[in-house]
Amino acid sequence: MKVLLLTTAMVAAILAGPALAQEHHHHEAEAPDHSAHGEPVEADPHAGHVMPAQEPEADESAADAHSHDGATASEEVEPSPLAAPPPEAFSGPEFAADSIYGETAMALARRSDLETMHGGTTAHKVLIERLEAQVRRGRDAYLFDAQAWYGGDIDKLWLKAEGNGGFGTRLDETELQALWSHAIGPWFDLQTGVRYDLRPGNDLAHLVVGVQGLAPYWIEIEAAAFLSERGDLTATIEAEHDARITQRLILQPRAQVSLAAQDVPRSDLGPGVTGVEAGLRLRYEIVPQFAPYVGVEYRAKLGKTADRARATGEDPSGLSFVAGLRAWF
Predict the structure, then answer these.
(1) Residue 55 contacts by C-beta under 8 Å, 6 or more apart in sequence?
(2) Measuring CA to CA, which residue among 199, 185, 262, 251 is closest to residue 226?
(3) 101-149 tens-digit pLDDT
(4) SS3 state of residue 203
(5) Which residue in 104, 134, 244, 246 has its CB near the most CB atoms, within 10 A?
């Protein structure tokens, strides 16, 4: 009996083996859905991604081909025509605000002093550019260079004075100029007028034509031609620039070239370039209107002008140490 039962169990196990294996493979092919039981399901990293059928550049170019209103990029937008103002716009009173605020009140807004305040005002300035002592080999000297103007934005009266001499002696020479200055642009003025030289026994008057203004890079330019009463034609060109080291400490390079069109024996000048000046001045602005300075300056006479200086025993060139004051008000 025991043998019969053991044999029956072995036969049943052999027959059930293929069925269990088939059921196991079926469960591997179809994973059960555990979402209903609250179990986490691992997401497929590639799920939801669809490979594009064309390159991104093609999509962008296709998007750019259409504007926001649906028009293609090749279509040109016609500008709206500007209509002329209607005739009624010119039929009202000259001062329309008078009908609202009253003629008396609005007349105050049209007063000449308000017009002057907003563009027609006059101003003035006095500038002492150089008031200095010059220490050099041979003879120490002093020099002054000042300007003053009065007027508006377009037209001004411009006065200039420059002179030098040795300590303990009278002035060697003084130049006085009275000029009418007219703006020929936002940066330059045209200047015309007269110049009068005060020299011992050799006073001389000139007609003056020149320009003065501000060149690019904040370079101040002053150029003028002088025709004397004797027919002598001379000219000067001057340039300077303020280079700020700090808000108060300023280095100013300055250069001047003098020229003559012919021999001027009374002034000891030869034709061509008669002389050059080049200097550096370092000033300290205690206040913007008051600034002491120190520096160096080189002067040289050139050409026949230098030959005439040597003939009289004068050194045609030399270096000077300077100390002085710049002020304006």
Answers:
(1) none
(2) 262
(3) 888 888 877 776 676 667 777 899 999 999 999 998 878 999 999 999 9
(4) coil
(5) 134
Q: Is 230 exposed, middle or buried (0-12, 13-18, 19+ CB in 10 A)?
A: exposed
Rounded CA separation 308/315 (Å): 10
Distance CA 236, CA 113 (A): 41
Write down the pTM of the prediction: 0.67
Q: Going by C-beta distance under 8 Å and a sequence separation of 6 or more, which residues neighbour residue 316? A: 300, 301, 302, 305, 306, 309, 310
CA distance 197 to 204: 5
* CA angle centred on 294, ends 178 and 258, rounded to 5°: 40
Task: Please give the DSSP secondary-structure letter assigned to residue 74.
Answer: T
End-to-end distance of the chain based on CA atoms, in angstroms? 140
User: Hey, what are 172's tokens?
Assistant: 């060697």
